[in-house]
Design brief:
Number of strands: 34
CATH superfamily of the largest domain: Immunoglobulins
Distance between the termini: 138 Å
Mean pLDDT: 80
Helix content: under 10%
Low-confidence stretches: 1-69, 476-495
Largest sheet: 5 strands, mixed
Shape: elongated
Number of helices: 1
CATH class of the largest domain: Mainly Beta
Strand content: 35-45%
Radius of gyration: 47 Å
Number of domains: 5
CATH architecture of the largest domain: Sandwich
Structural class: mainly beta
């Protein structure tokens, strides 16, 4: 047996004592075994490694380094308090146990849409160990909801790794509330017979809508608005209402409300009795329209539009449009100071707007009036614009306007070319007639149809496009598939 370094190599004590004839003295062999076992025990207690027998055929494997009896680090995670979106947040872990831990702590923050911490964290912060309380770096939130923190320790030569802590840990939950939006409404000075308001909104990149409401002078406590205007919101800033055409002078009151969104709290109606949101409007301008008046319905374009004369006026002009302030229907150009009426052409049925301007002392005044025009031209009932599968032998029908003063009749054109009448050109039909059956039309063709209305010698029209059914098919009109732009009408041919 070979002794380890540092121990005697004299093994005589391990040999049995012999007698005179070379025999062992009784008991000495047992004593030698005991002494040998004792020496092996001493070597092992001194840290001497003894190799285990290698199994036959096994490869040599080096054991991985590890820490025997590594100290356990304990972590207690706490999130920063409840806050609102856009604010900075952080987490703190109290460290206990362990053997002077070094290394790093890694904080992970999971988003409001990830309650089980299954997705990638929205923020990761790695900070060095070395204190009993370790703070993460700050993070600025971008959405409202409940977030969740986790923390883990990477370990060192004297301390085993630890964590991550549980996602379900209540103290690691972070509540982020929507932003407390704020809004102030200010009334603008009356101008040209209209009043308007603006709202200054602040929030965290707000979206949604602002609704403005205006209340009449007689509605002291803002019970029922006479006008509302809703505008879309895209970020903090100032937003303006649509102008309101007021019917009479007096003190009007504006209110505003904000709808809110996922990251911004809504704002209820601003105060009613609030000086900045009140405006005193003078009586409408002296150039006020006599016909039509604001809000009037069934306005006939056969009746001239009239207005009060204005003292010292230099020139007038008037526009009519399909929306407030538009001039897509009528643009009169300059009218002389002596003129107080204008005969408008046929207007389409529906809600329209007229603006009358008057220049006095080289300054313009104006008045908006909203009204509803009565139908002044016939409209196709069957087939409708874009119909396909139209029966080539079918009847064409329309709504009549024979009750409108000055209506003289209708004319129907059908053609294979845009704006033509190579298939049908009826000439003038009676004002009471509401249908017409043309000769058989070509099957499987795209056709162009124009329905004219003649009133006081002036033509208006409606143009549509249809497609007839193929030969032998079950003719049936289908849904519209396209729109046809307006064309310049040509007077109907004489009957």
């Amino acid at each position: 047996m070979t002794a380890a370094a540092g121990h005697s190599t004299d093994t005589s004590t391990c040999r049995p004592r012999l007698g005179r004839r070379g025999r062992a003295i009784p008991g000495t062999r047992r004593l030698g075994i005991v002494i040998a076992v004792a020496l092996v025990g001493m070597w092992l207690s001194a840290g001497v490694a003894v190799a285990a027998p290698r199994p036959s055929g096994a490869s040599s494997v080096r054991a991985k380094a590890h820490v025997d009896n590594a100290a356990g680090v304990e972590m207690s995670l706490v999130s920063s308090p409840t806050t609102s979106v856009g604010m900075q947040v952080y987490a703190v872990t109290d460290v206990s146990g362990g053997n002077d831990p070094t290394g790093t702590f890694t904080f992970s923050l999971f988003g409001a849409s990830d309650p089980s911490c299954a997705a990638l964290p929205v923020f990761v912060s790695t900070v060095p160990a070395g204190a009993t309380a370790v703070d993460s770096q700050p993070y600025t939130t971008t959405a409202a909801g409940t977030y969740h923190w986790e923390v883990s320790y990477n370990g060192d030569s004297n301390n085993a790794p630890a964590g991550p802590t549980s996602c379900a840990n209540a103290s690691g939950a972070l509540i982020v509330d929507p932003y407390y939006s704020a809004m102030a409404v200010t009334a603008q000075a009356a101008s040209g017979g209209t009043i308007q308001a603006s709202a200054m909104l602040s929030g965290y990149s707000p979206t949604g809508t602002i609704t403005f409401s205006v209340f009449s002078p007689s509605d002291m406590f803002c019970s029922s608005p006479v006008f509302t205007s809703t505008v879309a919101v895209s970020g903090s800033g100032t937003y303006a209402s649509t102008p309101y055409v007021y019917p009479a002078g007096g003190q009007y009151k504006w209110q505003g409300s904000y709808s809110g969104d996922a990251n911004n709290l809504s704002v209820g109606s601003t105060p009613c009795l609030n000086s900045p949101s009140e405006v005193t409007a003078p009586a409408p301008p002296a150039s006020g329209l006599l016909y039509p008046t604001n809000g009037q319905t069934n306005v006939s374009s056969s009746v001239p539009f009239t207005w009060q004369p204005v003292a010292g006026v230099q020139v007038y002009f008037m526009t009519v449009g399909t929306s407030l302030g538009a001039w897509d229907l009528v643009w009169t150009g300059y009218l002389p100071p002596s003129q107080t009426s204008f005969q408008v052409p046929g207007l389409p049925a529906g809600n329209l707007s007229v603006v009358l301007y008057a220049m006095v002392n080289n300054a313009w005044t104006y008045q908006f009036v909203n009204f509803t025009a009565q139908p002044t031209e016939a409209a196709m009932m069957s087939p409708t614009n874009g119909s396909v599968g139209v029966n080539p032998d079918g009847t064409f029908t329309w709504s009549t306007v024979n009750g409108v003063p000055g209506v003289q009749g209708y004319a129907l054109w059908i053609s294979t070319v845009y704006g033509g009448a190579n298939l049908v050109g009826t000439g003038l039909l009676p004002a009471t007639q509401s249908s017409y059956t043309p000769p058989p039309l070509p099957a499987g063709k795209t056709l162009y149809v124009i329905l004219f209305t003649q009133r006081n010698g002036v033509l208006s029209y409606q143009a549509i496009t249809i497609a007839t059914a193929a030969a032998g098919s079950n003719a049936r009109a289908h849904a519209a598939v396209q729109q046809t732009p307006k064309i310049s009408p040509v007077p109907p041919a004489a009957p």
